[in-house]
Write a structure and sequence with these properties.
Elements lengths: L2 E9 L7 E7 L4 H12 L7 E5 L5 E3 L30 E6 L5 E12 L6 E7 L9 H11 L10 H12 L9 H8 L2
Antiparallel strand pairs: 1-2, 1-6, 2-7, 3-4, 3-5, 5-6
């Protein structure tokens, strides 16, 4: 019977919580997890990424580089199996996407399940919309909310917010999560 990791990914530093939960085949690599997160979040995979263990020290990266903590080369994400890190329920990792915006995600193994059907990945649930790509990290997310009138615009110029709303945000709604639409692009 095929085995799957039930993973939950949530943005760190934003409340109320923005998250997704999905199943990923047990043989998946960290690169597969990266792609799953990108599709679940609705992002476009424009930027570099890395995963760090719960201590923040051991890195797994998109491209090899020397890890400043260990002075060893970080392994390449496509060559490291999730099963090498997510060995028990509750195991965690930090996923950093877009080193400029600095989006940090908590990735947690909720459980491992055996299911009769075969698939690569399957979306289970989630809440709220992830921020628009390249919006500027947590500060930029606050700017998005201020532009939509959902946050006091204390540190933002009103004319700038109006232009930002019209040219950047489009129909983005921070509270909207359409599971059927996300499943359509996610499930394989």
């Amino acid at each position: 019977m095929p085995k799957y990791f039930e993973m939950e990914v949530s943005l760190i530093g934003i409340e109320p919580r923005i998250w997704r939960r999905f199943l990923l085949k047990h043989t998946a690599t960290f690169k597969d997890l990266h792609r799953a997160i990108q599709d679940a979040c609705g992002w476009e995979d424009y930027h570099l990424y890395e995963f760090r263990d719960g201590t923040g020290r051991k890195a797994i990266a998109e491209m090899p580089y020397e890890d400043p903590f260990t002075e060893r080369r970080a392994p390449v994400a496509g060559k490291v199996k999730l099963a090498s890190h997510f060995t028990r329920k509750g195991a965690k990792s930090i996923y950093l996407y877009d080193f400029g915006d600095g989006w940090e995600h908590l990735v947690q193994l909720k459980q491992t399940v055996d299911l009769p059907e075969r698939f690569t990945r399957q979306l289970l649930d989630g809440a709220r919309a992830f921020p628009p790509e390249d919006c500027g990290g947590i500060w930029g997310y606050a700017r998005c909310l201020a532009a939509l009138g959902l946050l006091e615009p204390d540190d933002f110029d009103e004319a700038e917010l109006e232009e930002f709303r019209e040219e950047w945000l489009g129909d983005w709604n921070p509270e909207e999560f359409d599971p059927a639409a996300v499943k359509k692009r996610f499930d394989r």
